[in-house]
Fold:
Amino acid sequence: MARATNSPASRKRRKKVLKYAKGYFGNKSKLFRYAKEAVQHAWQYAYRDRKKKKGEWRSLWIIRLNAACREAGISYSRFVEGLKAAGIGLDRKVLADIAVNDPKAFGALIEQSREALKAKASAKKS
Structure:
């Protein structure tokens, strides 16, 4: 009996991997063995970095908030503590957007945060 190689399917599989590896440097875009490894690594990095991207954005928002808070004379951590005490549930993405695009509204948030911190401190004393 003749040897079956499953040629059409395996060729299609190899062409697909080489298509994904298009633009890679050297053998990684030309030879199946190296292209397959490079593509698998690329997919691992892509999966990992989709998760990492969320943390990087959060970090950027916190940096922006900290800069805006320092201009107003309060630290970021005290500002967030005051917002929590005031019952304001805005997330860091929205707060950073407000800080950049609407300084007047951000100033009002800082004042509310300060008042809540004062109330919290006076409640602690008594």
The radius of gyration is 27 Å.
